[in-house]
Amino acid sequence: MSTPENATPAPSLRQTDFLPARFSGNELNDDECLAHFLAFEDYLEAHKVNTEDPDNFSNVINTFKRTLGGTARLWLEGKNFTNVSELKQSFLARFSKHQSYISHVQSFNNIRYVKNESADQHLSKIERAASKLGYGDSQIRDKLLTSLPQECRASILMSLPHDAPTKDIVTKAQCYFDLHSTTNSTPEVTFNIADNSTDSDGEIKSLISGMESLKTSVEEIQASLQTSSHPENTDPQSRPSRSPSRRSSPRPSPNRHRSPFSSPSFHRDDRSSSRSRTRNYSPRRHNSRSTNRSSSRSRDSKRTVICFYCNKPGHSQRNCLLRRAHIEQSMNFGNGYQQFPQQNFRPFSSFNTYPPPPNHSNTVTYLQNF
């Protein structure tokens, strides 16, 4: 079939047609890396790129670089490959979770001891992960110690030297697991019951009678103890009598030897009497006071003031004339007076008037005339 002369030719593919999206490789994923490389192979097939030609393989590598970004682009930089199969194997080994070296390192570092796991099983798990990375006995030994529980590791380090082989470490770890096993065997208790009804009835009756006799003896002992501890409750005649001297002896007063000047009532009476005499000096003012004042004064007059200096009622020590004369006499002792005057004072009949003031020049004459 011939084509018409005016027919338009089929459009050619552009260089970016069927080019897969960029693969960053930040996360290891088997499906994503495999899907990306399959999309790249579809691109090569659509553009009919000859991958078998060694001279054209550099163009294949450059085209594959355009589909990568981030970590994947840095990984491909500086690497040399001879064919597409080698490129595919290296790419999947790097960015596949189960084939990548980094994934093997992460799985080796994440190994931990599982509860109820034996030491041999834990060691075999570490050896399988180390074989993928090419680790030796020293890395396996260090990982075995660090992955064990803290208490188990401390007991191993205290009982073994630092350069102990892996076999000894496994033995010590298994001993620790056996001693601290959580599966403790529970002892079983069995009972054998025999039908001995006649014998059991007699034993029960004997036990009941023994308990009753024991109860009676305990009650008797308690009664005897109460009687011995409280004899006055049972025999009032035997109660010891107190000595009359102890009962009749008065208790000493705490103020017996106290000075009268230290009593607060003394100063209170002294001030009240002096104020009352000062207020009641004038008879005219006394007659003009109210009934309330007179009633309060009558209540105050019921209390008798006694001088603690001359022991005479009617005045306080502060206004005692004998005390004043003695003070003046002691001051004028060098003027011919050789002895104190006699105490021949009489008490004042009322507080409304005062005697004339004493003559300081002749105190003895004043006292005799008074």
TrEMBL record:
| CCHC-type domain boundaries | 307-320
Q: Which domain of life is it from?
A: Eukaryota
Q: Which InterPro entries match?
A: Znf_CCHC, Znf_CCHC_sf
Q: Where is the composition biased (Basic residues)?
A: 244-259, 274-288
Annotated Gene Ontology MF terms?
nucleic acid binding; zinc ion binding
Which keywords has UniProt assigned to this entry? Metal-binding, Zinc, Zinc-finger
**Start and end residues of each stretch annotated as Disordered:** 222-299
Composition bias (Polar residues) maps to 223-237
Please report the name of this protein according to its UniProt entry: CCHC-type domain-containing protein
Origin species, per record, is Holothuria leucospilota
